[in-house]
Design goal:
The chain is mainly alpha-helical. It has one domain: Arc Repressor Mutant, subunit A, CATH 1.10.10. The chain has 4 helices and 2 strands, in the order αααββα.
């Protein structure tokens, strides 16, 4: 797998918990990120209000702010599809 930008990794994580509450391990596997990455990006997403964490169940779910982020991210990818694909020149 190619190296992804931080914004792409966050979008992948948000998509994993978009419709259902998910465990950290499930998000890690679905988003194809390492344990250290999922910890870092989930922490960032919680602080930014993009994802919600339930202390009772230990599950994560994308917030409305996260849905707005994904919508804008997807619009940008459609406008500039070349940024979503690996560059031949890097």
């Amino acid at each position: 797998m190619r190296n992804r930008a931080d914004i792409e990794v966050i979008a992948s994580i948000l998509r994993c918990a978009k419709y259902n509450w998910e465990y950290q391990t499930a998000i890690m596997n679905k988003a194809s990120v390492s344990h250290s990455q999922v910890i870092r990006y989930l922490s960032l997403a919680i602080k930014s209000g993009l994802i919600e964490y339930s202390k009772i169940t230990g599950l994560y779910k994308t917030t409305q702010i996260g849905f707005n982020f994904l919508e804008k991210h997807d619009k940008l990818v459609r406008l500039f599809p070349e940024i979503a694909e690996p560059s031949k020149y890097i």
